[in-house]
Write a structure and sequence with these properties.
This protein has 372 residues and is α/β, with parallel strands linked by helices. It has one domain: Aldolase class I (TIM Barrel, Alpha-Beta Barrel), CATH 3.20.20.70. The chain is built from 16 helices and ten strands. Helix 11 links the parallel strand 5 and strand 6. Helix 1 runs antiparallel to helix 2, helix 7 packs across helix 8 and helix 7 packs across helix 10. About 3% of the residues have low confidence.
Length: 372
């Protein structure tokens, strides 16, 4: 600790880091200064200290699958290589039997604790499709948590049903939905969204639907996709919109910052973004996330999916406390061709042990299942 303090005194961001160590959250201007600073190692030392103070040298993970139930989508986001328009030769939608078969295989082989439902904005799917799927999971696989549907997917279902998003959330919860991922946030600044996802819901709608979910007792993750057309002020605004909502509802269990992968996307073809943000930027985002959310959002994920296992190991020392989940059958990021997205529990356990940390397998709600 004395070494950190000594380095902090001579840093251009030393005042912010000293305040963080005293429990004072950086304000939005401090956040911009952190984002514009190159002193990533010192941010990481500070964030890592705060994380170990809370969790010790321990990292959690969830044994799960991502179930991409449909790739049919009418939103045409420029950052997505996964979607297909209705009627496309490569378009698909899984039947209930297909969903059950995939979950049964994952349960039998890996004893998964969570299934993440994630798909396109398919105008042919009404709320009963999702209700039937969630009821089936909870009835046949009671130890498997249902974590699913981004705010934009929920908005799509509401439009198909000509209903309110809150009514849809209420019905989905009754059918077995237990928690909501943060997808669809990207950057919560509409001038950014107009470039990368002009047909998707607005920043205010994302925040509104999340608040509705929290009010119904549905906890959630918050996310940020960085490394495209945003600037430091946009990222800082994103952080503080989430802080404001969390201070009101306390409904976010975790925050996940992940870098945009441009391969095979329209943004790459249009030369808007030609390469990913890289590992140093990941460590900066993880560290700043811990500093701004410390004492407010408990868990930060390592974002291994778009940055690889080696960077995830570093992220656990720069402020993250959760590795994230195993992935079997994931299709969204794998469509970019960036890297293999298959990862079993044993590879996660081994990679956490390699950095001298203890391993905790968790459930949907970050409760301990067992120590590994």
């Amino acid at each position: 600790m004395s070494l950190i303090t000594e380095q902090i005194h001579s840093s251009e961001i030393g005042d912010i880091l000293e305040n963080s160590l005293k429990g004072k959250r950086p304000d939005i201007n401090d956040c911009v200064r952190l984002l514009d600073s190159d002193d990533v190692h010192l941010m990481g030392l500070t964030a890592g200290y705060l994380t170990r103070k809370k969790f010790g040298k321990k990292a959690s993970f969830v044994n799960n699958i991502i179930l991409n139930y449909t790739n049919v989508c009418i939103t045409d986001c420029k950052f997505c290589a996964f979607y297909r328009p209705p009627g496309d030769d490569e378009a698909y939608t899984l039947t209930l039997d297909m969903i059950q078969a995939r979950i049964k295989t994952a349960w039998d082989m890996f004893k998964i604790r969570q299934v993440l439902f994630q798909g396109g904005h398919n105008p042919e799917l009404g709320v009963e499709y999702y209700e039937d799927a969630f009821r089936m999971v909870r009835a046949k696989f009671p130890k498997v948590g249902v974590h699913g549907l981004s705010t934009s997917e929920i908005d799509m279902i509401a439009r198909v049903e000509k209903s309110s998003t809150k009514e849809i959330l209420s019905r989905l919860k009754e059918a077995g939905l237990q928690s909501i991922p943060g997808a669809g946030a990207e950057i919560l600044v509409d001038s950014v969204k107009e470039i990368i996802s002009p047909k998707k819901i607005s920043s205010d709608d994302w925040l509104r639907i999340m608040e509705e979910a929290h009010s119904l007792g549905l906890p959630a993750s918050a996310t940020m996709m960085y490394g495209h057309v945003e600037n430091s002020k946009d990222i800082a605004e994103h952080f503080y919109k989430i802080i404001k909502l969390q201070q009101k509802t306390h409904g976010f269990m975790a925050f996940i910052a992940w870098s945009f992968e441009p391969n095979n996307t329209l943004m790459q073809k249009e030369k808007i973004v030609t390469y990913g943000a890289g590992g140093l930027q990941l460590l900066k985002m993880i560290s700043i996330s811990r500093l701004v959310f410390d004492g407010l959002i408990p868990h930060l994920q390592s974002s291994w999916l778009t940055n690889g296992i080696g960077m995830a190991q570093l992220a656990l020392q720069y402020g993250a406390d959760d590795f994230g989940g195993t992935l079997i059958g994931e299709e969204v990021v794998s469509c970019t061709g960036a890297r293999s997205t298959e990862l079993t529990d044993q590879r996660i356990i081994d990679s956490i042990h390699q950095i001298g940390y203890k391993v905790e397998e968790r459930d949907n709600f970050y409760n301990t299942v067992c120590m590994r």
